[in-house]
Write a structure and sequence with these properties.
Blueprint: H1 8-20, E1 24-29, E2 35-38, E3 43-46, E4 51-69, E5 75-86, E6 97-102, E7 111-117, E8 126-133
């Protein structure tokens, strides 16, 4: 049995459907040079870098977390988030930061660090990424 063929019309429809559920907005930036102290949060944050993408996106908490060591040296599970931007967005890489500027989910963190990006599918309907809370990133390269 042959696999179904994805026609350009079907692919375009699937891409529009994916973009229709991207209800948050945000900015993805390349890393800046070093870290800066944010007096509003009381935490160090990455310096602001060049904007790679700004616009609609979908970000939500994943069902699993990523094992990391906390300040006391204990292994804990850091929350992991999955996100998506339109399929034709290029240049997003592990280590880039995601600033969620508007979302219907008040519990969604506003600053995340990308740890993995999906790039390998010719029939891509959205550019998907995995991210962790900024400061907990263990980037896969």
């Amino acid at each position: 049995m042959m696999p179904p063929i994805v026609t350009p019309a079907v692919l375009a429809s699937a891409r529009r459907a994916q973009e229709s559920i991207m209800t948050s907005t945000g900015v993805i930036r390349a890393p800046g040079d070093g870290w800066v102290y944010n007096p509003e949060t009381g935490q160090d944050e990455p310096a602001v870098g060049e904007v790679v993408y700004a616009g609609h996106m979908r970000v939500q908490r994943a069902r699993t977390g990523q094992p990391v060591y906390d300040a006391a040296g204990e292994l804990v599970t850091a929350p992991t988030y999955v996100g998506a931007v339109p399929w034709n967005v290029a240049g997003i890489k592990p280590g880039h930061t995601v600033e969620v500027t508007d979302s219907d989910d008040p519990a969604l963190p506003r600053l995340l660090t990308i740890v993995d990006v999906e790039y390998n599918d010719l029939a891509l309907t959205a550019r998907r990424f995995t991210a962790t809370l900024t400061g907990h990133a263990h980037v896969r390269v």
